[in-house]
Amino acid sequence: MVFETESALSGPIRVVDQGDERRLVANGHTLSAISLSGDWSRLKDEYWCRALDMVELTHRPTALFVGLGGGTQLLLLADRVRPRFMTAVERDPVILQVAQRYFGLGRLARTEILCGDIERVLPSLESAGRRFDFIMEDAAYADPVDRALPIALRLAGLLGPRGVLVVNRNARHHAAETAAALRRSGARVTTRRARRDGDNVLISATNPRRA
Where are the alpha helices (DSSP H) in the chain? Predict the structure, then answer.
């Protein structure tokens, strides 16, 4: 055990080291894992890696991550390419503080982190005309469909001309509904289970119609 605290939003939060791996655990669920040595091969079968594997990244992408956790995917993306700019949205200030202190986010260049619910952050991104080459949404994994679907569709509206949105959904909740809604928006949609024996379904969408 490296660190332990309590969050009003996320419950008990722990930072745990297991060999070369550091994990962020909130209320018994693993939110993030990183390699302390920089060797990401042990995480290649986890959904954080598989989400990046299923898209073709531009040379220097702009990226938006909804749901920061410990910043696993920010670190993975920076390890693969040189992002032009990265933005992350995290609703829980305690998670944000732990991520910055224990997960090395301070070493990431050209990165902004916004603290708040995505519904509160989206209007400012939309009104500013922000566009991203890659968007990963990992915050509404098992939320009610009436909250999760509008988030996914509004995020799709922030994609650049060659941009791709990936959302992580629970197969037993509304993965199929999310994929169908994105298809109705005009997007090309691909779905993939992160693991055969797991519930994580990764849904990628490109080229949605502009509202």
Answer: 47-53, 72-80, 93-102, 118-127, 145-156, 175-184
* Residue of 202, 9, 183 whose CA lies nearest to 92: 9
**CATH hierarchy code of domain 44-206:** 3.40.50.150
User: How far is Cα 170 from Cα 202, in angstroms, rounded to an integer?
Assistant: 9
Question: 């949105």: which residue's tokens?
Answer: 165
pLDDT at 107: 84
- Do residues 114 and 88 lie in contact, with contact meaning Cβ atoms separated by under 8 Å? yes
211: pLDDT strictly greater than 60:
no
Nearest to 87 by CA among 105, 114, 67: 114
Three-state DSSP string of 149-206: HHHHHHHHCCEEEEEEEEEEEECCCCHHHHHHHHHHCCCEEEEEECCCCCCEEEEEEE
- At residue 209, the pLDDT reads 63
